[in-house]
Amino acid sequence: MDEQDPLRKFKEEFHTQEGTIYMDGNSLGLMSKRAESKLLSLMDSWKVHGIDGWTEGEHPWFTLAEEMSSRIAPLVGAQENEVMVTGSITSNIHQMLSTLFQPTEGRSVILVDELNFPSDIYAVESHIRLRGLDPSAAMRKIGSSDGYTLASEDILEQLTEDVAIVLLPSVLYRSGQLLPIREITAAAHDKGILVGFDLAHSIGAMPHSLHEDGVDFAVWCHYKYMNSGPGGTGGLYIHERHHDLLPGNAGWFGSDKTKQFDMDHEFSKAAGAGAYQIGTPNIFSMAPLLGSIEIFEEADIFRVREKSLLLTELLRKGLAEGVPELMDVTPQADAERGGHIALAHPEAARICKALKDQGVVPDFRAPNMIRLAPVALYTSFSDVEQTVEILQTIMAEELYKNYSNKRNVVA
């Protein structure tokens, strides 16, 4: 499989540690040599040009976000004017909700799910409070019957007439379940509900078709499968049908570029998604993404998805045969899973520590979840096979008992 892999050359593009198999790209992707080069290049532009770096050099800072946004758009299936590289997931949720959440007496609920990442929930609660509403009434959570996944019928059942917006993850961060974006969006629109998705665990792992699917808005980070570095600048998408709306949180970088430096106190809104930028871009946090984009343009996101599915299929087959005591909670069907496999076990924290000491970098999620993400650009099929063999040894010899069953993050 490695010999026939059309993406095998890209592993050489990344800084990998000898003797280590990195299976945590769904939390933080590895640094590519091109990302490193672009960061150094942008630092040099500051060194050489000083303030003139805003308008001079290979990548002028003033239009850097727009340059990258037009190249990110194909990865999420959007038009160029619908995407903006800016902010973070949470700040972009705040921007989208401040712009689009317009509660009325009969339609004031924001629908979320009980398995979502906490920051998304905090953002939703804050907007409900800002409008004088009670989160216990105006934020509704879709329940999970198994604690790992969401049933489509449960989602659709909650799309009631009092819901204004539904905000869901494209891929659930714990179980790796991929939700049916098009189906949910169509059903919500039939009820007059706006739909947003958090693409944190899908962008860079699979293609999207946000515009064609009619999704109203989406947010994401670039530091997982997109490999842009820790805390790297995120992104947002807002369908062109909403581009007439003033940003709920306005700032000078949301201005029409031709008028931004007029310093007029009257806001001249940019025509597309650029209007939903707020402050001055963080140039060095954006720079590595330039190198990452180049790699994705060469690799092709459809080939990335094809290999990702093969990698996760090989991984889960090996796990089922070799370590059946680890419960695989990721949906089986290709169309229902993202780029990682989630395993539940009461000794998960211990097992993750043992894996690290044996040369495999996994991801632990409290209280009992091991996540393994074989990333198509830098994980080989041999890496997957070795990971399974190491896990077999850890479980058979109970090596995990040499560690505490607590995460290493100090409160």
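That was protein one. Protein two is written in the same sequence-then-structure order:
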Amino acid sequence: MKKLCVIGLGYIGLPTAAVFANNGWSVHGVDLNPTAVNSINNGEIHIEEVGLEELVSNAVKNGYLRASHKAELADCYIIAVPTPVNSNNTANLDYVKDACRSILPVIKKGDVVIVESTIPPRTIDDVVAPIFEGAGWNVYEDIYLAHCPERVLPGRIVIEVVENDRIVGGINEASAEAAAKVYDTFVTGAILKTSALSAEMSKLMENTYRDVNIALANELVKISEKLGVDALEVIKLANHHPRVNLHLPGPGVGGHCLAVDPYFIIEKAPSESVLISESRKINNSMPNFVIEQVEKIISNRNSKVAVLGLTYKGNIDDVRESPAMEIVSKLLDRGFSIGVHDPHIKQNQVDFKLSPFNEAIEDAECLLVLTDHNEFKVLDENEIVKKMKRPFVFDTRNCVKIQNSEIQYVNFGNLDSVRTEMKLKK
């Protein structure tokens, strides 16, 4: 039986380990978080992902998956640790470097080393390879080194890690072939073999493409608000063109991919990545834009704002780089009273109070929807009318369906009504 060691048991590493463990591999997971290690060894999960708990429980029960804080002897090593951005928006590769160094005591000739973490172009050649070469390994002959970026959607990771096409970038052709055989164990999509550099760049461009197109939609919202145009109708109409597919706007861009990956390209070619840089600025400006609209809606900063949703997308528990978190922080900094409700978030994930829906909306003058959880698509309208000081819903995700005429509803399509009301107040 082939042995696999997965370094990093987070949102990508744990599903990856679990899928391998359910497809004939003996998998040892490594993580520094004791909660993660203990949970996994008990057949439980420490993150929210559809279908993952069953896979982990099954693998642990059958003896194919276990976890600890230290790497062990294996035939293949997959590195799936975070790559956050530094304060200057450059990639922090410390976790990747540490993960590579952690397997040096156990790696042997002929082993496959795969970096799944998202990394800037040339990281395999300029950062990862030298770590192994410094330990005496010839990365072109002794081991097989590759970058195989994850390309999955939270909420569908267990499905997409199997069904999606997989890019396998080797430091040489032999490494690409060896890594491809690893994924051929269970991947039903196409396995696309290429160089490590092309794999690095393709992963970054996949998310940059989406970030740039979201920026176009968000810029449209700002233009439409100024001109009194329904941005959502414009998008719907434009998308009837057979070669147009405008994205939907939102309160910003979050997550560990779209909000981070473009910076890895900008870092390597700042003068050439003008469009990518401007798109990042537009998307980063959306939390302030949302707050500006809130300030038009409510009477003063002594008013209460009820916030629904903290995660960067619906039906997950991930708040990394979430614009909702930034909006809450800025509302608090400006002196607003807030009530926050998110059924997918635990209290220990945030440093402000979470409340049940009824408590969060009580005496609020604005109900601000920042995440499109399924739970928010149909709200208790009677409670909104009864509990809120003023029944006003500002839906930045265009997901809430309101039937009660007593509730004023605004989304990114009718922001002009907010401007009109502002004039009436004056």
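The chain is about 40% helix and 15% strand. Keep this in mind for the problem set.
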